[in-house]
Design brief:
- The complex is a heterodimer of chains A (179) and B (182).
- Chain A is built from 2 helices and 14 strands; from the N terminus they run E-H-E-E-E-E-E-E-E-E-E-H-E-E-E-E.
- The radius of gyration of chain A is 16 Å and the shape is globular.
- In chain A, strands 3, 5, 6, 7, 9, 11 and 12 form a 7-stranded antiparallel beta sheet that branches.
- Helices cover 7% and strands 40% of the residues of chain A.
- Chain B has a 5-stranded antiparallel beta sheet with strand order 6-5-8-3-10, with no helix packed on it.
- The radius of gyration of chain B is 16 Å and the shape is globular.
């Protein structure tokens, strides 16, 4: 019998918006600065980041990086390319500044290889609630980011629209239940 | 005979110069500053940036990042396209007037399927200003496989690449969806 090692690189345990399966390479190439806490661009707007999933995975948690002024409700999830919600935390009260906030979800299979969009929305556009990168908005458009208005909590289906803000939050999904 | 399953990481919706499918890793490793507006390096010159696809992709838009117009100097036109690994043009925008200072400019193209393989993003211009990296030396983009071609505006049906003489690398690319900027 011949053993063949599959030529598939397993995805990292955290699928992060600034990781290699999302926009990490582009951000490095575009010479963006360090991440910092900042006010969400518009209340109830959702931001979407392309995720290239190389193989089927089971998502157990979603997470985002809280900034210095947590407030309101946040929803974190994943959409397919047609705008169908695959999984989400549901509206979740932001807790604890300067921490990663994890939300356990029912184990959910994301079939791969496929293209998805990580989605994050917030009701709070008053305080600096999230850690984000802020390169030129045209850079982020060129990288494939999108947005949707009135999308908190994240709707079952969403109509993607062109990005309007230079705001790339650090958030994602986890393939393990511990953090 | 058994064969290994293919490496099927899907391509991004937007494949730009900065993408890992193109030369993004090399730009990042060079520690280059963020792209900025500047004049096109030489009138009629095309730049060819290699990229690789592991899965088919349907191209619906080509785009580039317009510069600031550089004061009194007229801008445009620009031609953006894709060549295959034998330097045969597969699609292009044709000569297109620049519109929108400091903005991405997208041009819809007839939906074109690219199979897995090696290709080149091509951008050609005359007096345009575009957002571009200025690499640490011409050897860096050259080592990443970037080529240039003279007298290549508009982009010809076949093109002959040659060694680079400029360390300039513009931000441009393709999109598999219609929506890019609005």
């Amino acid at each position: 019998m011949t053993l063949v090692i599959p030529n598939v690189v397993p995805p990292p345990v955290y699928l992060l918006s600034t990781g290699p399966l999302c926009l990490g390479t582009e951000l490095a190439a575009l010479g963006t600065g360090t991440s910092a806490s900042a006010v969400w661009p518009t209340a109830n707007v959702a931001l979407f980041v392309p995720l290239r999933l190389p193989q089927t995975v089971v998502v157990q948690q979603v997470f985002w990086l809280n900034g210095t002024g947590v407030l309101g409700t946040t929803d974190c999830g994943v959409y397919d390319v047609k705008g169908n919600l695959m999984l989400s935390s549901g509206g979740t009260t932001q807790l604890l500044t300067g921490t990663i906030q994890y939300v356990d979800i029912a184990d959910t299979i994301l079939a791969g290889p496929a293209l998805y969009y990580l989605g994050l929305s917030s009701s709070n556009a008053i305080t600096a609630a999230f850690i984000r990168q802020n390169p030129n908005v045209e850079f982020l458009k060129a990288c494939g980011m999108l947005q949707a208005e009135n999308a908190n909590p994240l709707p079952a289906t969403v109509t993607f629209a062109g990005l309007a803000s230079a705001y790339l939050p650090l958030f994602g999904v986890s393939l393990r239940s511990q953090n | 005979m058994e064969t290994a399953p293919p490496y099927l990481i899907p391509p991004r919706p937007c494949v730009t110069t900065a993408a890992p499918e193109a030369v993004g890793h090399m730009i990042a490793a060079d520690g280059t500053a963020a792209p900025a507006s500047a004049l096109w390096p030489a009138s009629g010159t095309a730049l060819l940036v290699p990229f690789t696809l592991t899965q088919p992709i349907t191209v619906r838009n080509l785009f580039w990042y317009n510069g600031n117009g550089d004061g009194a100097i007229a801008v445009g036109p620009v031609d953006c396209g894709i060549y295959d690994g034998t330097f045969t043009r597969l699609l292009s925008t044709g000569s297109t007037a620049q519109a929108g200072i400091n903005l991405l400019q997208t041009v819809s193209v007839a939906a074109t399927v690219l199979p897995p393989g090696r290709f080149y993003l091509a951008l050609s211009a005359t007096s345009a200003t575009v957002f571009r990296w200025s690499m640490s030396g011409v050897e860096v983009p050259q080592a990443a496989g970037v080529l240039t071609a003279g007298s290549a505006f508009p982009l010809p049906a076949t093109i002959t690449g040659s060694g680079l003489s400029t360390a300039v690398l513009p931000l441009f690319g393709l999109a598999s969806r219609l929506l890019v900027t609005s």
